[in-house]
Amino acid sequence: MARTMRAVVLTEPGPVENLVLREIPVPDPPPGWVRIAVRAFGLNRSELHTRLGLAEGVTFPRVLGIEAAGVVDVANGTDLQAGQQVATLMGGMGRTFDGGYAEYTVVPRRQVIPFRSTLPWHVLGAVPETLQTAYGSLTIGLDLRRGQSLLIRGGTSSVGLAAATIAKDLGATVLSTTRQPDRADALKAHGVDHPIVDTGQVAPTVRDLVPEGVDAALELVGTPTLPDTLASTRIHGTVCFTGMLSNQWIVPNFYPIAYLPRGVRLTAYGGGSGDLPAEVLQRYLDRLAVGDVSLGPVRSYAFDQLRQAHTDMEQNRTFGKMVVTISP
Description:
Layout (H helix, E strand, L loop, with lengths): L3 E7 L8 E7 L7 E10 L2 H7 L10 E2 L3 E8 L10 E5 L14 E5 L3 E3 L6 H4 L3 H14 L7 E5 L4 H13 L2 E6 L5 H6 L4 E4 L5 H7 L4 E6 L6 H6 L1 E9 L14 H4 L5 E4 L9 H13 L7 E5 L3 H9 L6 E5 L3
Parallel strand pairs: 9-10, 9-12, 10-11, 12-13, 13-14, 15-16
Antiparallel strand pairs: 1-2, 1-4, 3-5, 3-7, 3-16, 5-6, 6-8
């Protein structure tokens, strides 16, 4: 095989021009690691944070990308087989070692999830991190149960759309927010029971719909909206802080007694490949294939359009998941 590959390298934190398409050596997997031929990868806000210099513990130059979908190229003595379809995510990808913005990526076997699907790669690339985050937030973070009500703050994000799908599957009533009024109908079409236009204060609207407050809330916007999300939640309800679409995640001068409403619980979720069981991924892909569930919109980019994709992500131009595909 060729000994070099195309990769998009972040030379140093800064503007989108610091993402440079280069030819670099194809990495060799050490013992216990697997080389994957990447076919597609989703874009994530954490990669934008890294590009902007907001992530800790990252050395440069670095190939970004916290997830990828593709086929095993070198199994390296593991239980996997060359040619097998796999997904990989998190575990230091794109931060402590090179990630998915490349034709090949090398990752530990423990963070590789095998699957089987005839779905196109731009769809498969949209699933792993989005599903892991939404599924983990609702199960580990919120322990959401049938018959409960859920508020999703940041509902038109890819994670917000996936969370709505999973929550409806669990039998929950879903309230979901968008800052853009013209996207409310899209949320309704996606299965959301109560789309809410987010003016910065949604608690009064939420309590008009659910007078005692929602049972659970998924915070995907960040600390600017967190107090209002807490105010939307009932006594003994739970808010899970998962996302930072606002790029703000610190609560200055945090005083819990003054900050937290009486009896409302605040937790957080940040997971990895181990929080997405292979059977959950397979079941979701199978249901996608027959149209039982929907990812929401997927915006696909070619590999050489990555700068444009990052610009669109930074400026919040897209609705749903952004995916980059790589031709074999």
